[in-house]
Specification:
heterotrimer, A alpha+beta (409), B alpha+beta (413), C alpha/beta (230), A: 409 residues, alpha+beta, 2 domains, 6-stranded mixed beta barrel, 55% helix, elongated, B: 413 residues, 6-stranded mixed barrel, two-stranded antiparallel sheet, 16 helices, 54% helix
């Protein structure tokens, strides 16, 4: 494609400046919208994932095979603390914490409720979970073997207890034996997550092991760290599990399938919307290029009579479409980047987002993601669709015979 | 009357088909735009409807009455007197304004099988009254629904049954706390298993006859909640106000008040739909204005001729608007038809179980029923039509404002 | 019939072409009597088209006064001018005379429709006039299906059907062969004679000039010659 062709194409598309501007404006509109929405979506997903994982789940977990699907007490990780230490060494990551989970009847002086109990290692737990930082009253757990618990705010309210009160815990241990203890409450946390505040309490891991007859076992080893480094961390953790067949390393998608699928469902429905928008813009382009070809029938007749082939005319039209579509795409990306850049700095919010935010663990102010991943797909899709749309005028033009073309005015 | 309307329409109509390709492309774009509007809205409405349905169906009902403080602290101590002790409430609930109502007892409990222990909510129901009010009567897929208020069996969700590794007909033990703070414990046989769209429902609730639960908890004739359905989940304010007055010293709430998240979702959804309509319209309007401008531009000579012949500028404006109106109307007709044809085959729902867990997370089931609301369809049509005409004003105005000589210099030579 | 059909008094027209002011007409004084059959001739750029535009109210003069049908038209609003053209002036252009989406009959009826003539009446009038100009049987053809001469005859038929006092024609024979042109001129002359319609025709064509009762020659926006003819 020579410069002359491009220059000619450029001049041709500006024969009708208003039409060209409207066509470009339509593309720019779609581009900016797609960039904005995609950036916002990706930003939102990232926050949903990060915030959901940060509270309790972590980036990945080591568990006994089958525990994730059917969490029975007896599906444990043997010698869990040693394994956790091994993983820490291999991944050079401190954010590795051992946990045990159990269910028990929890009684205060006046109330009895069922609740989920987690045994945590107070030294490492704050590195994998934000929960220890969300204590609203009292303090978090201290020593690994202390007899104390922290409890969710709703559960505390329902049990009518405050820090300092004692709770009686009654459940069944790993071997089916009776598990019972009396423990003072030292702190109350409020995570904002309904289930966690309503259903959960945490006690130091060794105390938990004593009560629930766990020995040196645990139910999961939670691994935190940054999501960007997840692959490398996983490799290290996998190496530590090399000779342990009964254990598996689960990524967050397996641990929270709902989160991943919610994102997928949202993404799919969003692309349906985008597709409709892109098709409409492509139709606009189709119309413009068809007009521009039809009104030049006479001109094409002259060119054909002069011996310019259909192929060359076709390339000319393609070049015009390409110049138009590229101009639209570049302006679109530029303005789109400015728009998302603005919201990246200032944040974006809309009414009702607070309630949704609470439900989906996202803050009420969103910051869109600004990356090639958010900037390019929309405009590229618009570009491809508009280029595809310009094929029809070319097909139309190819049927042209010089004599009839010259008769057209 | 100097406006020969029929002539204007004739000219506009014929002009439209002079460049039939261009008009067809524009018509298609309008049709697809409208289709996108209607479809997307139907899907979004369907999702919200389902969330509402499943919220109402999962015990909330349209309006609920609880003892004061129960919602904050769902304990067995906080009970209401039974409805029969309150004649005003009884007659209101039995009136035509309420389609279903029932009393329930709701307590946190622990369920124990031979294999596992789990926390649940034990719900004591009146099986006859409950039927039609909540999902439970229609969801028993194995065994039998409860026979009466003193049926000695319990109904357990499918997923809970699997978790407990037990079977229908086997025994489980339920533990809870009676009003005197003593542990009440009692063995039951599983009489039936229920299946629901949401797993969380299957694992959260265990149902038993209301009198059986009262006996287990050694309580009097109090109830934890009264749930009722009106004719329509919207416009419940009047009914709720009357119930509130009749219930006296109690906590009366509509489902929207019980689930503020759902209320916000409804509001957000209306906003989202309006934004979506506007986006589609803007995308359409570029093409529409472009097409009309082209049509006006290439007819400069002709419009000059019409003016030279004495056609008033206002008529020329109307002529272009009529052209646009015809195009919009045909496009809308096609779009509505297309929407109808594409929604018809999936009226029974789209299976989206591939993302079931994600939908469950958002409180939805895995079959999506598109909900076509006539108000949405009307709004979509109205927006395209009214704003479409508005967008055509510029090209039409351009056409009418051409000083004749400009246009006619093309005629003279 | 006593008052002149057209009076131009010191009509000036200046076009701004970039920096340059082009004087298309300067100080044209002209009176055209009712029932006249006047030819405007002159080389390209002499101002005949501009003068015709002014008289037809398609353009406004830069200076001077123009009176048509006893109305001062140089200060009229666009909609008033449209009204004037509709009721008092018929036009025949060089080409593209007809509305392409309307057939011959509808084109002839068009002006009557604007005037609010009842459907039956205008239909009959249109059929009559088309027969008169020799287009019987072609009433339902669209312009694209008519020859150049036939199109011009439809244009004439449309111009005369509502019996305007004044018909303006610009190079009406430019695209016609001489036999067709002669026939067209003959018809216009007949209408002038029988009905008394005033004709103002701009032309290069010697044939057209030979039909004129009065021949006005323009040069550089001024009237240079004014000859009464037979």
């Amino acid at each position: 494609m020579t410069n002359t062709t491009t220059l000619l194409a450029w001049r041709n598309i500006w024969r009708h400046p208003r039409r060209t501007l409207l066509t470009i404006a339509a593309m720019v509109f779609a581009d900016v919208l797609l960039i904005f929405m995609l950036g916002l979506q990706l930003g939102q997903y990232r926050m949903m994932i990060d915030n959901s994982l940060a509270i309790f789940t972590g980036q990945m977990q080591v568990q006994a095979d089958g525990y994730n699907d059917e969490p029975y007490m007896y599906r444990t990780i043997p010698a869990a603390d040693a394994l956790a230490e091994d993983i820490r060494a291999r991944t050079q990551l401190e954010a590795v914490a051992t946990r045990g989970y159990g269910f028990a009847l929890v009684s205060s002086e006046t109330r009895t409720l069922g609740a989920q109990i987690s045994g945590v290692d107070p030294q490492f737990e704050p590195r994998v979970s934000t929960l220890p930082g969300l204590i609203k009253q009292g303090r978090y757990l201290d020593g690994k073997a202390d007899n104390e618990i922290v409890i969710g705010s709703t559960l505390a309210r329902n049990l009518r207890i405050e820090p300092g009160d004692e709770l009686t815990i009654l459940g069944s241990g790993r071997d089916g034996s009776m598990a019972a203890t009396v423990t003072p409450v030292v702190g109350i946390y409020e995570s904002g997550n309904r289930d966690m505040d309503r259903m959960m309490l945490s006690m130091p891991l060794d105390t938990f092991r004593d009560v629930f007859s766990m020995g040196d076992t645990a139910h999961s080893i939670v691994i935190g760290g940054e999501r960007e480094r997840a692959d490398r961390i996983a490799t290290g953790a996998q190496a530590a599990l090399a000779d342990k067949d009964s254990l598996v390393l689960l990524d967050w998608e397996t641990l929270m399938p709902g989160l991943k699928q919610a994102i997928q469902a949202d993404f799919t429905s969003a692309w349906f919307m985008y597709a409709v928008l892109i098709i409409l813009v492509a139709f606009g382009m189709l119309n413009t290029m068809l007009m521009s070809v039809l009104e030049r029938t006479h001109e094409f007749g002259i060119l054909l009579a002069l011996g310019v082939g259909h192929g060359k005319l076709g390339r000319m039209i393609v070049t015009e479409s390409a110049v138009l579509a590229t101009t639209g795409m570049l302006i679109g990306i530029l303005i789109g980047a400015v728009v998302v850049g603005y919201y990246l700095v200032n944040g974006f919010t809309y009414p009702g987002m607070e309630a949704m935010g609470e439900r989906f663990n996202i803050p009420s102010v969103l910051r869109p993601e600004v990356s090639l991943r958010s900037l390019l797909p929309g405009p590229l899709a618009v570009f491809l669709a508009t280029m595809l749309a310009s094929l029809y005028p070319i097909l139309h033009m190819r049927k042209l015979r010089p004599t009839e073309a010259l008769q057209a005015v | 009357m100097k406006t020969p309307t029929f002539m204007l329409i004739t000219i506009a109509w014929r002009n439209l088909w002079r460049n039939h390709r261009r008009s067809l492309i524009m018509l298609t774009a309008i049709a697809i735009g409208l289709w996108g509007m209607i479809w997307m809205t139907a899907l979004m409405r369907g999702m919200v409807d389902q969330m509402i349905d499943s919220a109402i169906n999962t015990l909330s009902g349209h309006v609920q009455i609880h003892a004061e403080g129960f919602l904050d602290d769902p304990s067995i101590e906080r009970t209401l007197p039974p409805v029969r002790d309150n004649p005003a409430l009884q007659s209101l609930l039995d009136s035509a304004r309420v389609t279903h109502w029932s009393e329930r007892i709701r307590v946190p409990a622990v369920i124990r099988s031979e294999r596992d222990v789990l926390g649940v909510t034990l719900v004591g129901i009146d099986p006859q009254q409950e039927s039609g009010l909540s999902f439970i009567a229609d969801s028993v897929t194995e065994g039998e629904y409860l026979a009466g208020v003193d049926d000695r069996h319990v109904l357990v969700g499918r997923k809970l049954l699997e978790r407990l590794e037990t079977k229908s007909g086997r025994r489980i033990v339920l533990m809870s706390q009676d009003p005197d703070n003593n542990i009440a414990e009692r063995g039951f046989r599983i009489g039936g298993v229920f299946d629901t769209d949401l797993q969380v429902t299957e694992t959260s609730y265990v149902f038993a006859g209301i009198e059986t639960v009262r006996a287990m908890l050694k309580m009097g004739d109090g109830v934890s909640e009264i749930s009722l359905l009106g004719p329509d989940y919207r416009n419940l304010d009047a009914l709720a106000a009357d119930v509130r007055a009749a219930a006296g010293k109690a906590d009366t709430k509509t489902w929207l008040e019980l689930d503020p998240y759902m209320a916000t979702m409804l509001g957000v959804m209306d906003g989202v739909i309006l934004i979506w309509f506007s986006i589609i319209f803007v995308a359409l309007s570029f093409g529409l204005v472009n097409t009309l401008l082209m049509a006006v531009f290439e007819r400069t000579r002709e419009i000059g001729l019409l003016q030279a012949l004495g056609m008033p500028p206002a008529n020329i404006l109307i002529m272009v608007l009529v052209e646009s109106l015809i195009m919009l109307l045909i496009g809308l007709l096609a779009g509505n038809l297309l929407s109808w044809l594409t929604i018809l085959p999936i009226q029974d729902g789209i299976d989206i179980s591939g993302v079931a867990a994600g939908l469950e997370w958002a409180g939805m089931s895995s079959t999506l029923l598109p909900a076509v609301k006539s108000s949405d369809v009307l709004l979509a049509n109205a927006i395209v039509l009214v704003l479409g005409i508005a967008a055509s004003l510029f090209p039409a105005w351009r056409a009418s404002r051409k000083v004749p000589v400009e246009a006619i210099t093309r005629i003279w030579q | 019939m006593n008052n002149p059909a057209v009076i131009c008094h010191k009509v000036d027209k200046t076009f701004q072409q970039g920096e340059l002011a082009v004087h298309a007409l300067s100080g044209v004084d002209l009176e055209i009597a009712s029932g006249g059959f006047v030819c405007l001739s002159g080389p390209s750029g002499s101002g005949k088209t501009t003068l015709l535009n002014m008289i037809g109210g398609l353009d406004r003069p830069s200076g001077g006064e123009i009176t048509v049908a006893d109305l001062r038209i140089d200060r009229m609003r666009m909609s008033e001018l449209a009204e004037l053209r509709l009721h008092h002036i018929g036009f025949v252009f060089q080409a593209y005379n007809l509305i392409p989406v309307l057939n011959a009959r509808e084109n002839v009826e068009f002006v009557m429709q604007l005037q609010g003539v009842a459907a039956a009446k205008r239909h009959a009038l249109a059929m009559d006039i088309l027969e008169e100009v020799g287009l019987k049987g072609m009433e339902e053809r669209r312009p694209g299906e008519l020859s150049g001469g036939q199109q011009q005859r439809v244009a004439v038929a449309r111009a005369i059907v509502s019996k305007p006092a004044l018909i303006l024609a610009d190079e009406p024979t430019a695209n016609l062969d001489s036999a067709t042109a002669e026939k067209l001129m003959q018809q216009m002359r007949d209408l002038n004679t029988h009905i008394g319609t005033t004709f103002v025709i701009s032309t290069h064509d010697k044939l057209v000039m030979s039909y004129a009762k009065r021949l006005i020659k323009l040069h550089d926006g001024k009237i240079v010659d004014d000859i009464a003819q037979q």
